[in-house]
Every structure is written in C-alpha cells, then in structure tokens.
C-alpha cells in the first residue's frame, strides 16, 4: 500500500546548497562541483536525453543551443545542432556554440569525455547525479536553481509529485503486487532486470508494486529464477515495437510462470520508461496502470 | 592413456554425468529421480515445465560445448598450432556483429529471424569470407589464412563497435548485448533442439571424416602434399566444417571463450594426438564440461545468472594452468 509517508520521504531528499549572494549564483551540484554563474545561463548545451528533457520541462527550451546526438525527444529540440554522441562528443563542437552552461549526467559517456576538459577551460558545467526516484527530482531542483528558474523547477517537481500522489490515491487500499521488470533480453534467454536503488525500482514501488528481485549478483535472471520469485505481473520494457505479450509468453519454459498463465504480461516501450527525466512521473502512472489495470478502468 | 573402449566409456560417463549434474543444478536443486519423472511426465504443471526447460537447456549447453571442442580440435590440427581456437577466423567477431543487429535493431523481420540465426550467419559467414578471400588471393598455407582471419576479425570487430555506438540509445539494453558476448546460452526447444542435435551430429561425422588427413597434415604441409593431400583444398574443407560447428555454438551459446582451447588440450594430454579419437572424446568431454558450467552459472548466485563465458574463463583458465604446469613439470 502506498502511504503519505512515502511521498514525504521523496520530498525530504531535496537538500541543495544554494547560496545567492548579490547576483552571483554559487551552486554546488550533487558531485560537489561548485558552479559560479554571474547571471542565469542563456546558451545551454544539454547532452543526455534526460538532461534535455529536464531543461525543456523547466521552461528553458529557448536557451538550448546544442544537444547530444542521441536525443530523440522532444521534437522541438531536434533541429538544434548536435555536438556528437554516437562516436563520442566533441569538445570543439561544444565550444563552438559558446555555451555558458553545459548540462550532463554523471556516469554517462558525455560526462566521461567532456566534464574535465570543459571545466579546465572554464566552461560552467552542471553534472546531474541520480540513482533513485528522489534523486531525479533533486537534480531537477538544482538544475532549476542553476538556470535561475527555481520557481518553475519547483512547479515541475510539484506536478510530478502530484502525479505520484494521484497514482497513490487511485491505488489506495490495494495490495502491492509482485512485479518482474525486464529491461533487456538477449534472444530467448538471459533476461536483465533492475536492482534496488534504481529509479525504476522506486517506480515499481510508487506504482503499487514490489520488485520481486533484490539481486546482489548480476542483474541477469533465468526463467527458473523468475518462477521462484513468482511475480504477479511481468512488465517487459522493449525496444522492439513488434514484441507482444504473446511472444513473451511463448518463450521457452515461460508457461510455468503464474503471471503468464494468468495473462499478466505487459510490454512497454523502453525508451519512454527508462529516461530518468521529467517523464518519470508519467512512467510511474503507466507502470501503475500495467500493474493494477482494474484500478484505472473507468 | 591409449584411446579405447575404456577411455570412450569414461568420456561418455563424463558427458552423461556432466549433463546430469547440470540438470540437477538450478535456482532450486533437484534430485535425479525427480528429473526423470519430469522428463517422462506430460503433465504441464509448473514445476515439470521448468524441469523440462532445464533439461533442454542442459542438452543445448552440451551441444554448444561439443561443437566448440570439435571446432577447436580441427582448428588446432589444421593450423598445427596449439593456440588455435574456434574463434580464430573471425567467428566471434562475425557472430557478435550479427547479435548486435538482432539485439539493437527493432526491425520486425529481424525479430522473426531471431538472434541465433543472425549470430550463426555472422559467425559462419565471417569464416567463409576468410576462406573466400584466401582462395581468391591464392593463399593456400595455414599461416596466410590465419593472417586473413586476423585482419577480417579486426574489421568485423570495429564494425560491431561502430554499429553499437550508432544504434545504442535509451531504448535498447546494452547490458543484454554485453551479456551475450560473455556467453549467452539460448534456450533451444522442441524441433529447434532436435535440429541443433542433428547438425551437431553431422559436424561430428564430417569432422571424423577429416581426421585421417588431419593426422597426415601433422607431419607438415610439404609432407602431407607428397602423401597425396591437396593441402589448400583440404584446409578449406576442414575450416568450413570447423566454422560451421563454431557458428552453431555461437548461435546457441554466444561467445564462449576458452572452451575450444582447453578441452582439446586436456583431452590430447589424456589420450594422445590421433584425431579420430581426439575429436570424439573432445566432443563428449567438452559437452559435459559446458553442461556442468551452465548449471553452476544458474545456481551459484541464484536467482542471478552469471554469464557463462565469465565462468568458463574464470574457472577454466586456472584449471588449464594447473594441467599445463603439471604436464611441464
């Protein structure tokens, strides 16, 4: 069952060190990287899909001057110049756009290739760090502060929290269902899933589910492992639009799974569900609908 | 030990024992009687379905191991090089390229064809390309073919990296791809499994037919030529067979390092150099070996599955070193 306390726990995670002294904004992002911005940035390069979506959702679409090559959403940014992505990022392409802020996520190839050279050249960079759901909201607040749009970021976070509350309200008094969330598969075996601490693991919880796996070893499971965990619902995140629940159910040995016998298999688009940005609240709602379809039936 | 009825019986025992152990291991371990009743029963209750799945998977693992071991023997014999292994002539690079397409491209016809077919086409195709290039360039010695293979493997490897970089975005799972290249055993079932078994048997028959000339080739290419072996043609034929076996293994097992190297060597130290018994024993031992390792990969960290290729190298390499040290001491 989802409780109010759960939502407060998410709210409490937004501790940000913000110092507003005169007109200079000094801000420490989650990595301890201190950002000194004399004025709100006007020329932003955003590299990862989640970062672009966040900047746009906070309301700074018109300030983006460049994006990473793997960005596919929203359509309004796709005409902007790309600074690389498929074969690595170009420091020169970024510098040529004369950015006053480069936004990227820690642990991505963009950050690995660009963070050091750009900061050595004095280009302000914003490094977002996220693991769980709360940290996604936290980086959005920080990003809002960095853009001088704290109030808009606050509104965005509030609306995401409202969506989450709305889902919780809809699922009130419903028992949690065991969920196996598949994030990848090689052929008809070697299935990948998510570990505790990942935002998608939080997503399952916020959607009224319970991740049936608390893996410490590799995030790869067999059909036997899934059968042992006995999920109520199987949610497959797939890149292949031709994949159907029937194809999933026909995998070797899968007829042994209770969720398969009860036709509780749902296929969702991976690209939507696994981008740690502003669409995560909607992703939780979609997941909730998959886990508790009858609660959302009209 | 001289190969004979005794060694064959031992190898068969290793193969059957390996499969039995592999089938007993899993998320929940099972005793042999329970397994037998599950195979015999036609009742689709959930436990039996899973046990049947496990048995099929173990048979699949056995066939993959047998193919790799046979391919290893042929490659080592054909190239007269103890370091030769099944992936030498671009099979792994080609197979991985096929797998990249199958996993990363969301094209309906690709998902219909499936990962194993793409991997097989890549793996076998790569080696056929090596042989084709060698033929066109009139390269007829093993060393020359080896160089063609190395160059093509580098090219295919680079292509695979490029395709991965271009196709990978948030909508695909790179983890699945990495897992496959670390040995991703598929689950062949029903007719697919029978076809796989029949093709593996065909590989065994074909490779046994090559055995005598592989023995002759052991005296050197020049000597073999004077003994009436058309070395260029024979190499092409032998490598085509070996590449077919490798392709089968890649299709159903992903890239499994080391099996095709350690098993033939261990068996060679056991029963000697003659190719006919070497092929037969290697296939049996290699299959049993991989069946056990598959069981370990499914059970040690259950419910997590350890990619099989990690295990074969992690445990296989020290074991191989141990054998090697004992032999040279």
Would you kindly provide a brief summary of this structure?
The complex is a heterodimer of chains A (298) and B (329). Chain A has 298 residues and is an alpha/beta fold.
Largest binding interface between chains: A-B, 49 and 53 residues
Helix share bin of chain A = 25-40%
| Shape call of chain B | globular
List low-pLDDT spans of chain B: none
Description:
The complex is a heterodimer of chains A (298) and B (329). With 298 residues, chain A is α/β, with parallel strands linked by helices. Chain A is built from 13 helices and 15 strands. In chain A, helix 5 runs antiparallel to helix 6, helix 5 crosses helix 7 and helix 6 runs parallel beside helix 12. The longest helix of chain A is centred in the middle third of the chain and has 21 residues. Chain A is globular. The N terminus of chain A is likely disordered. Chain B is mainly α and 329 residues long. Helices cover 78% and strands 0% of the residues of chain B. In chain B, helix 3 crosses helix 12. Chain B is globular. Chain B starts with a helix and ends with a helix. The chains are: A alpha/beta (298), B mainly alpha (329). Chains A and B meet through strand 10, strand 11, strand 13 and helix 8 of A and helix 3, helix 4, helix 7 and helix 8 of B.
